[in-house]
Each structure stands twice: as C-alpha cells, then as structure tokens.
Amino acid sequence: MNNSLKTKEDVIALVQTKMNEVYDPCGLARGLSIGMVDMGLICSIDVEPVDNTWKVFLRIRFTSAGCEYFPYFEREIRERLEVYQQIESISLEWDKNMDWTPENLSEVAKSKLEEHNEKLLSAALQRQQLR
C-alpha cells in the first residue's frame, strides 16, 4: 500500500480532495466552479481495508429530482480514483431522499456564490445605468 494511504483518514481525505475536483455542471453553467464536497453532495464516505488496498463506499445526493448528471458524476469520480492502485473498488450509491438544500453548501461555496451574485447584480445595475 502506498505510504500516503496508510489509514482510513488518509483515504477519506484523498477521496474528498478528488471529489471536490468534480464540479457541479449546473454551477459551471452559471460560471461557478464548486466541487461536489463544497456543494454538499456527499452524504457519506466509508472505506474498508482489504489486504493492502481499500474499498471505497460513497453515498451521494442530487440537488433536485430532475438532475440528469448521474453518469457524469460517476464517470468523473471513477476517473479520479481508479488511478490509485491502493483503491481496489469504488461503490457509489445515490441517495434518493432528495434532501439537498442550500444549507448543505460549505462556507467556501457560500462565499463563491455570494461573490458571483454580487458581480451579476453589479453588472446588471451598470447596464441599467447605461440605458
């Protein structure tokens, strides 16, 4: 096993980092780069040691029932984690509760969203003044 993935905490930290590199497509469409962790899309990350490798179990939520990005999220997660030989398997479970709210956003994401909204408002006001 790679020295950097000795403990469950090491594996969970790696998984969180890699999942936060997967940006929410709806946010990207609005000009926001917010990763899955900061979006609050991760319900749980569990890891289990197996010999010299790890099994990773992820439970992920959608922001709405109409979200069609399951294949995108799954592909991006697998691409980022399967490169690690110490990760033997990745199991993804999609939470069907549809309980995501803006309160699930991290402080980083809330700050990005607030800054983005302020820029949009400022641009709209400037356009209005030019008329």
TrEMBL record:
InterPro entries: Fe-S_Maturation_MIP18, FSCA_dom_sf. It comes from the Bacteria. This is MIP18 family-like domain-containing protein.
